[in-house]
Amino acid sequence: MPAPLEELERRIEYAFRDPALLQRALTHKSFLSDNGTGPFSPLEDNEQLEFLGDAILGFLASENLYKDFPHFAEGKLSRLKGHIVSAAHLAEAALAIDLGSYLLLGRGEEMSRGRAKPALLANALEALIAAIHLDGGLAPCRTFVERFVLAKPPGAETVLAPIPLDAKSELQELAQALRLPVPRYVIVQEQGPEHAKTFTVEARVGQDYVAPGEGSSKKVASQRAAASLLNTLRSLTPLSP
User: Fold this and answer.
1) In 3D, which of 208, 209, 215 has the Cα closest to residue 171?
2) pLDDT greater than 70 at residue 138
C-alpha cells in the first residue's frame, strides 16, 4: 500500500489545492488496469502529466544552465541538459524524496519491485512536476525543481559538479592520451535492501591509479568513480581534458 500523500506534501513542502492532481501524478497505468476505472477516467494515469512534466523540466533545466554557464556553446549546453533530464538523474532525485513509497501500482508492478524501478520513478517525478505546475503555476514548480532536481551537492558549485558530461568517455580519452591502459570498472560493494541499494565501484587505470564512486545504480557509481579518477590524472598532467 502507498504511504499517505500528506507525508509527501510535507516532504516536498508543497500542499496541493487540488489533491486529485497529486494522486493522478502518482497513478501508474498498471493500477488502472488492475482496478478498473472506478473514480478515474481512462486518461487519469500519469502518462499525460509525464509528457507535460518532461517539457517543463526541459525548460527549467535550460534556464538554469543558461544562467550558470553563460559562455558555453549551444551544443555543450544541450549535452549538459541531457544529463539533468536523464532517467538516471531523475530516478536519484525521486529516491531522495522516497517518491516510490507513494505510487499507486498494479499487482504486477508491486511484485516486481516497481517502486524502485528507475524508469518508473523518473516518469513519476516528471508527472509530479507537471502536477505542481498545473496546481500552483510556474513559481512553485521552479522552486521544486531547483530544490530536488537541480540541487547542488555539498561543496559543489553546480548540480553537474560531481559528474562530468560523460566521465567514463573522458577518462578513456585521457588515458589514451597519456598512453595508459584502458580504464576498468569493478563493483566492490553492494549495500542496503533490494529496493534501495547503494553500489560502490572502483575505476582502475593500470595498477597505479584507482578511485571509488558510489551511487544508487552501477551506472551512476561508475560515472562518479571515473570522475574522481579524472581529477587525479588531470592533476598529474598539463594536458587539457
Assistant:
1) 209
2) yes
